[in-house]
Amino acid sequence: MEDNRKQIIKMRGIVKRFYIGTPNELTVLKGIDLDVYEGEFVAVVGASGSGKSTLMNIIGSLDRPTEGSYILDDIDISQAKDSELSGIRNQKIGFVFQTYNLIAKTNAIKNIEVPMLYAGMSMRERNKRAEELLALVGMEDRMHHLPEELSGGQKQRVAIARAMANDPAIILADEPTGALDSSTGRMVMDIFHKLHKEQGKTIILITHSPELAEECERIITIKDGEITGQRKGKGVIAQ
Amino acid sequence: MILENIRLALTGLRANKMRALLTMLGIIIGIASVIAIMTVGNSLTVELNNEFASMGASNIEVLITRKINEEDVSEDGMVYTESYRDRRPTDDDYMTDEMIQAYIEAYEDKIYAIAAYEDVTTTQVKDGQLYANVNISGVNLGQLHSDKIEMLTGRVFSERELNDAAKVCLVSDKFVNNMYAGDTAAAIGQSVHVEISGKSYNYIIVGVYEYKQDSYSFETVSDKDLYTRMLIPIRTAKAITHTNNYSAFSVIGQSDIDVNAFVTETQDFFNKYYERNKDFEVMAYSMSSYLEEMNSMMGTMTLAISVIAGIALLVGGIGVMNIMLVSITERTREIGTRKALGAPNSSIRMQFIVESIVICLIGGIIGMILGILMGYAGVKLIQSTAFEISPQSVLISIGFSMAIGVFFGYYPANKAAKMDPIEALRYE
User: Fold this and answer.
1) Looking at A82-165, which runs of residues are DSSP E strands?
2) What pairing do the DSSP bridges indicate for beta strands B248-253 and B111-115?
3) Which residues of B touch A86 (CB under 8 A)?
4) 3-class DSSP state of A36
5) Rounded CA gap, B326 and B328, in Å?
6) Among A59, B33, B74, B321, which residue has the fewest nearby CB atoms (within 10 Å)?
7) If we measure between CA atoms, which residue out of A198, A235, A207 comes closest to residue A41?
């Protein structure tokens, strides 16, 4: 695993506590060390309450650790100010949520343009890139459909295209198939594999499904705020 | 970015038409009432000013009035003018040529002209089949100026004719139409014969002036039966009415004087002559002081009602704030998503402030149009001829509604901007 590839994530001794200084003080992450290299497809598995959501929030720069250091694509996140975090999210992270979180009353192409809008791209650039991304996820014929006119699988494909908008360092997918039936879930997973293989994207998949985790190259298990196991996955689609 | 925000706001409004309309209603009513009141107020002021200007608002009227003596004031503070010792003013109580002459000399630099007239009678001039109705009136040169008499042919009275009470006259072009078949040149030098209280008088026509219809009365008679003024020198008229002095006259001041101060000076000047007159004194007044008073009264009234209307605007603004808070709560997940996708707090704040401004601005524009229509209806209702859309009202409605948008949108927008993205994403 220690290879010449670029290190995208380097976490050392990440601790996250909530309600600090109160009797309810809660330590959710208890010293996590995590390394992810460019082009990896990593699964993070764990039961609910294991701290995987908190870890995801920190990886996604939505939150900062209480202790420890986190270097994301050569940027020290633990030292970044709030105002810098939004820029980091915009440029480095592509979020895919379980509930899609497409912006209502805004058509597919405009949804994909949102991260580019915050990146300050011109309208023409945004439009061109959004069309390319829609084609990448096979949704070019649904360009002007509103989210409420799309099926769950179609919405998630649009969301994946949106996550790719600013060509982020990692795609962070939180239970991306959790709300989908198995066949549409399969289709979504295929897109992740395609992005991984064809575009060399670094993907972190957070899931509680052992079958999906098996498809990834590496499986990280979290329990009670600690990494309890790391092993290789098949890295291929189990059929 | 701003454009994108405006587009977003409009999409949001279209998606929630009923709610948007109800939210705007407060702004619409507020702006509409302010604009309507300002329009009516402005139109009234303009009309008032026009009317006063045509009446010679800057002239000072000087007239004889009854003295209010202490014994006339009853215990309840009322003045009963019809008291037992009332007598009518006679020629001796009136202002004399000497007084006026002294006045002119004392205030030479402030007086442009003195206008005085003496109405004689109304009669008909006849010549065989031809006739013309006339109001015979004595005037001085100042009065000709004050009445805006414009000569078509001939000349006005000379100083000598005025001083010597010459038997000359000015007639209207309508008069010439009736008597001389419209040939104004031929009319000059003709002698006009009139009968006044059984006596015969002959006046030589020295000039013809252009008849202008009085803007306050509509003549219902035909041109042929129209009464027009036949003007004679004032002393000529006074000889007929057996008066020497003046019960009233007007002072046309120089344009640069302080009219109100000069009114007081004029009154004080003449009252020196009336110290010993038991029953009468001189009063001077100027329409311009009334005008100023009325203008300021109108202004105060318009302002007062506008303030009340402004309260409606305030309530409307609070409505906007309320709906913005609701909208932000509803869209918590959207805000969380936007933040996750990299929206800085400032963009979120801007998005919602723009939305609030758009709501208020649309409301403001609808309100402005409605207000102008209401103002127009109001102006028509009070049968005013002037309809003035004050340019300020347009600026005020645009500016005010935008200011309300910013003011009442800021708090909700800031609340949205400060949301924790993790909490917002988890919001159900």
Assistant:
1) 93-96
2) antiparallel
3) 339, 342-345
4) strand
5) 5
6) B74
7) A235
CB contact set of A142 (below 8 Å; sequence gap of 6+)? A108, A134, A150, A154, A158
Q: Note whether B11 contacts A106, CB cutoff 8 Å.
A: yes
Measure the CA–CA gap between B246 and B149, rounded to whole angstroms: 22
Q: What is the ipTM of this complex?
A: 0.93
Q: Give chain A's contact residues with B (Cβ, < 8 Å).
A: 57, 60, 62-63, 82-83, 86-91, 95, 97, 101, 103-106, 114-115, 117-119, 162, 166
Q: Which residues of B touch A82 (CB under 8 A)?
A: 345
Contact B206, B169 (CB under 8 A): yes
Question: Residue B11: helix, strand or coil by DSSP?
Answer: helix
Q: Hey, what are B312's tokens?
A: 């409606």
Cβ contacts below 8 Å, chain A against chain B, sum to 61
Question: What tokens appear for B363 in the block?
Answer: 């409301």
Q: Which amino acid would we find at residue A222?
A: I
pLDDT tens, residue by residue, B320-352? 999 999 999 999 999 999 999 999 999 999 999
- The CA distance from A171 to A195, in Å, is 10
Task: For residues B214-219, give the mean pLDDT.
Answer: 58
Phi, psi of A84 (to 5 degrees): -80, -30
Q: Is B2 on the interface with A (CB under 8 A)?
A: no
Calculate how close chain A gets to B408, using CA atoms only, in Å: 25
pTM summary value: 0.71
Residue length, chain B? 428
DSSP code of residue A72: E
- Cα–Cα distance between B344 and B334 in angstroms, integer? 14
Q: By percentage, how much of chain B surpasses pLDDT 70?
A: 93
Q: What is the pLDDT of residues B219-250, one digit of tens each?
A: 667 778 888 999 999 999 998 888 888 888 88
For residue A134, give the DSSP letter. Answer: H
What is the rounded distance in angstroms from the CA atom of residue B203 to the CA atom of residue B205? 6
Contact B341 A62 (CB under 8 A): no
Rounded Cα gap, residues B151 and B163, in angstroms = 21
Sequence letter at residue A25? E
Residue type, B344: P
What is the CATH T-level fold of the domain A39-63+83-232, as seen in this structure? Answer: Rossmann fold (3.40.50)
Which of A87, A97, A104 is facing B342, going by the closest CB pair? A87
